[in-house]
Design goal:
- The protein is mainly alpha-helical.
- The protein folds into 2 domains: 1-75; 78-157, Winged helix-like DNA-binding domain superfamily/Winged helix DNA-binding domain (Arc Repressor Mutant, subunit A), CATH 1.10.10.
- The chain has 7 helices and no strands.
- The protein has helices at 4-47, 52-75, 81-93, 99-109, 114-121, 125-138, 147-154.
């Protein structure tokens, strides 16, 4: 049986969760609309009667933005253009990493600590240590190899 104070806290938390879910839904709708706009812009660019080099440059920008949006959605996290390039390089070099491991690699490279990464990945700190142990082997690092140093050196400039 919950006390009146606990019931009030619970109701406040439920209201906060509902508000956050509504906000997340709005962001997802906005992202979908932005992707549609980018695709429409890319189509318009392709139909323009302009210099092929200029057309290719504009199309490449749209394609990069579309790729970044798709990758962010797949990894369930916001990505900068640099983050998306890093993930792309990492995926090509290590296709054995799953989406969660790719996301964790990004957070390691960005200097998040184990507790922060665990919280973001919805796992325990001990679970995070296990993930890092498995990733160490998947990345082919020796016993003394540092995942963070490896990922920093892998990062595109």
């Amino acid at each position: 049986m919950l006390t009146q104070e606990q019931q009030k806290i619970r109701a406040n938390l439920q209201a906060t969760i509902a508000a956050n879910e509504g906000e997340l839904s709005r962001y997802e709708t906005m992202d979908a609309a932005n992707v549609q706009c980018l695709q429409a812009l890319l189509d318009r660019i392709q139909s323009l009667d302009i210099d092929h080099g200029q057309k290719r440059a504009m199309a490449d920008i749209c394609l990069l933005l579309l790729e970044t949006a798709a990758m962010a959605k797949r990894l369930n996290t916001e990505l900068t253009e640099t983050d998306a390039r890093f993930i792309s390089v990492l995926e090509k070099k290590h296709p054995n990493l799953d989406n969660r491991e790719l996301r964790i690699c990004l957070f390691i490279k960005l200097d998040y600590d184990n507790e922060e990464i665990a919280r973001t990945a919805s796992i325990t700190t001990r679970g995070m240590e296990s993930v890092r142990y498995r990733m160490h082997h998947k990345l082919g690092l020796g016993r003394s190899g540092s995942i963070k140093n490896y990922l920093i050196n892998l990062a595109p400039s």
